[in-house]
Amino acid sequence: MFEIPKSVKIGGQEYKIVFGKANDFLIHQPTKCYGQCDYFNCKIELSEEICQQLKETTLIHEAIHAMSEVYHMELDEHMVRILETGIYAFIKDNIKNIEWKD
């Protein structure tokens, strides 16, 4: 598990991470949704009602949506879900073995 940061940088923009009740910020969602990315206000909104692991995967999921928008990748929801799962597993399985050097 990792601590959810107060903000993340994506494409040079700082995206604020905010928590709330899913029904307060989720619009136009016909299915269950745990978060959303507000590109115009540089904000990632996560449900406070979900467990820690879902908060982590949802943050990664919404960050991928932001990257797709910023870098014009045009990823569809299926592609975002696949990347979310793979990136989360990679981080969880390898983060202790990664050492950043300047």
Description of the structure:
This protein has a four-stranded mixed β-sheet with strand order 1-2-4-3. The longest helix has 19 residues. It has one domain: Arc Repressor Mutant, subunit A, CATH 1.10.10. The chain is globular, with a radius of gyration of 14 Å. The chain is 40% helix and 21% strand. The mean pLDDT is 90. The two termini are 25 Å apart.
Distance between the termini: 25 Å
Averaging pLDDT over every residue, what do you get? 90
Strand order of the largest sheet: 1-2-4-3
Encode the helix/strand succession as letters.
EEHEEHH
What kind of oligomer do you see? single chain
Note the main sheet.
4 strands, mixed
- Which blocks of ≥5 consecutive residues have pLDDT under 50? none
Portion of residues in helices? 40-55%
CATH topology name, in short, is Arc Repressor Mutant, subunit A
Based on secondary structure, the structural category is alpha+beta
Query: Radius of gyration over alpha carbons?
Result: 14 Å
Shape, per Cα inertia axes: globular
> What is the number of E strands?
4
User: If classified by CATH, what would the architecture be?
Assistant: Orthogonal Bundle
